[in-house]
Amino acid sequence: MANTIVLNSFLYLTAWYFLVHSVAEGFAWEGELVALIVVAVHLYRTEYRFSELTLILFSMLAGFVIESALVYCDIVAYASPNKVFPHLAPLWLTGLYAVFTTTINYSLARFGVSFMTAAIFGFAGSIISYYAGYRLGAAEFLMTNAGSLLVIGSVWFFFLPLLYKVNKEIIHFRESHVH
Asked: Is 84 exposed, middle or buried (0-12, 13-18, 19+ CB in 10 A)?
């Protein structure tokens, strides 16, 4: 299990960096390809493919809605923006949500033990992650840096516990339907 957690962390961090860096350099498709490969490797290695895929798809959809609200409300702007619908989030962000979600049952499983643990980790982790993305040139804060990060952290204070709750429901459904 320790090897799985280390590999999961490594793949997530590699995909995160590659996706954010490629977007900042104007090559979002390269980062999206890496994210797709990481998710495919994750789904290949997990015993519960359907459950994991369900959670990943939920996270991608929820993430697109969250990020679109942040863009629409002028909290943040992203490199490689959505050219078809400029007030919505760019699609490459769904790749970040997908690779992040691969950590929920593995390297970040311990943060889902309570609402408050997940909420604090969501708040602090999102601030660190978004600030790193800003420093790499993939995002621009449209409020003050502190103001934008406070809004983003507050969103993730609730989103991460929700993601763990949905995960628990998916697991409960899977286990109640196995005969």
From this structure: exposed
